[in-house]
Amino acid sequence: MKVIKNMVQGKVDFDAQTLADYAESIHLASTHIKKVFPAGSLDGKSEALPAIWENWESFSKATDQLTAESSKLKEVAGSADRRAIMKQFKKVGQTCRNCHTDFRKKKDKNK
Amino acid sequence: MSANADDEPASRGEYLFNLGGCASCHTVKHGKPLTGGLAMHTKFGTFYTPNITPDSTTGIGSWDNEDFIQAMTDGKSPNDQHYYPSFPYTSYSKMTRQDLIELKCYLDIQPAFSQTNKPHDLKFPFSLRPLLTIWKLLNFTRSTHQLNTDKSEKWNRGAYIVNGPGHCVECHTPRNWMGGLNSDRLLAGNPDGLEGESVPGLTKAKGNRISLWTYEDIQFSLQFGMVPDGDFLGGSMGHVIENTTSKLYEYDLQAITVYLNDL
Fold first, then answer.
1. Exposed, middle or buried, A13 (CB in 10 Å: 0-12/13-18/19+)?
2. Numbered residues of chain B with Cβ closer than 8 Å to any chain A Cβ
3. What is the pLDDT of residue B4?
4. Going by C-beta distance under 8 Å and a sequence separation of 6 or more, which residues neighbour residue A99?
5. A93 — contact with chain B (CB < 8 Å)?
6. Residues B78-126: tens digit of each pLDDT
7. How far does CA A108 lie from the centroid of its chain?
8. What is the ipTM of this complex?
9. Angstroms from B49 CA to nearest CA on chain A
10. Would you state the pLDDT for residue B2?
11. Closest approach of chain A CAs to the CA of B71, in angstroms?
């Protein structure tokens, strides 16, 4: 996301292939999310909230959303249409934020 | 007078409604808008937010402007009962009279829903509401926002938002044993925040991660929720971004940033 952000903000040169590659890796990672949160994995340093398993259906829906939106980002990346990319990037970001709002608790304020 | 002119105060009120983050606490997921009922768990017990829809019996539909202004700036209900500072009147008191009236205009035209308020569930002695008289004497000064003429207009706008309607100070400032804001450590962060969250400091002090961010980083994180390392802000700030900072005018985001950068 960081590289894509820098690209849409014009901090680094725009490159459709790099953007598509990153979108692809977000897309791939999103399909693994459900597997890396097995029930009851609250031990240790996890910042996951019990809400994940209490509302598994909405958590699962949210990850599906990320899968769908990142896949669209991959598609628009090829178009080199900066506005469309920015718009889709924001949509992906919103799905990130939604989950971090409902299902994650920060343990260290500076991390 | 045209109908449009009548609409104006309400549309400015809508902006103030977003700026004040009213929906973050008064609307709960799966609940009817603005009917309250959000549980706020604190070490004093659990507070429940009230219904602020224009319903005349369970909401605030019977309030006139003066009732609303008293609630927002003096933390008192129309029958002079003190409000607990879980309701951030301590910040809203800095709002201008005109802003408050416009905000009420907007609230007045929201759909009314009947939903009785859930009483707070507090530990003794905090459950004794009259004690708030003493709390207010020690922790609250009713004063509108003071302009700092040495600073720019933008800086002053930022200071107004952060300390007034935006009520950033409420979560980002540590509190004393009775829950009053520690005004000497304004925006220094609160490791012991609401719902056990550790709330980061917003000053330039070393150790606050925001001190390493550029002007642009701060603005982007407010608008979009993404921090420089690509991670996303979440928790209670997620609601603030959703309901407030993602909806602000560019100028106001700049104003907040200018002010924070100067702390």
1. exposed
2. 189, 191, 195-201, 207-209, 216, 220, 224-226, 228-230, 232-235, 237-239, 241-242
3. 45
4. A59, A62, A63, A66, B234
5. yes
6. 999 999 999 999 999 999 999 999 999 999 999 999 999 999 999 999 9
7. 21
8. 0.71
9. 19
10. 39
11. 30
* Cβ–Cβ gap B235/A100 under 8 Å: yes
Residues B118, B119, B120, B121: is their CA dihedral positive or negative? negative
Angstroms from A105 CA to nearest CA on chain B: 6
Q: What is the pLDDT of residues B22-73, one digit of tens each?
A: 999 999 988 999 999 999 999 999 999 999 999 999 999 999 999 999 999 9
Report d(CA B256, CA B246) in Å as an integer.
13
Contact B234 A109 (CB under 8 A): no
Q: Which two tokens stand for residue B229?
A: 């390392």
**Contact of B240 with B24, CB cutoff 8 Å:** yes
Question: How many residues does this entry show for chain B?
Answer: 263
User: From the CB of residue A94, how many other CB atoms can be counted at a distance below 10 Å?
Assistant: 18
Q: Tell me: pLDDT of B3 over 50.
A: no
Q: Give the per-residue pLDDT at B247.
A: 95
Instruction: Classify residue B195 by its DSSP letter.
Output: G
Asked if A106 lies within 8 A of B235 by C-beta distance, the reply is: yes
Beta strands in chain A (DSSP E): none
Give tens-digit pLDDT for B215-245.
999 999 999 888 888 888 888 999 999 999 9
Q: What is the largest CA-CA distance in chain B?
A: 55
- pLDDT score at A17: 82
- Please give the Cα distance from B122 to B145 (Å, whole number): 32
